[in-house]
Write a structure and sequence with these properties.
By secondary structure, this protein is mainly alpha-helical. It has a domain at 36-96. The protein has helices at residues 8-34, 42-62, 65-92. It starts with 7 loop residues before the first helix and ends with a helix.
Length: 96
């Protein structure tokens, strides 16, 4: 397995993984810190989750490991955001 680490596929995959983490992580952290998700759209979160799941399926079918990894991160972060949205909005009396 003498694969070069600096291939275009690996570099772009690494960028995709990092940007997937950057995409929602700050919002997850801010929501946790403030315990508020009033200004976050549930539709956007669900769309993000569905999109990531579709990309995971595509990644599995094409054996694109970075597509899978970056979108698994997206599903996890979107899932956390959805749970935060339900819990925090319910507490504030503004359920979804």
């Amino acid at each position: 397995m003498n694969q070069h680490l600096c291939t275009l596929e690996n570099l772009s995959g690494g960028v995709a993984l990092i940007t997937s983490i950057i995409g929602l992580f700050p919002q997850v952290y801010k929501s946790y810190r403030t315990k508020s998700t009033v200004d976050i759209s549930m539709l956007m979160l669900i769309n993000y989750m569905v999109c990531s799941i579709a990309w995971i399926i595509h990644g599995v079918s094409t054996d694109a490991i970075f597509v899978i990894y970056s979108n698994v991160v997206g599903v996890i972060l979107a899932g956390i955001s959805i749970v935060q949205k339900v819990v925090y909005d319910k507490r504030s009396g503004r359920f979804i």
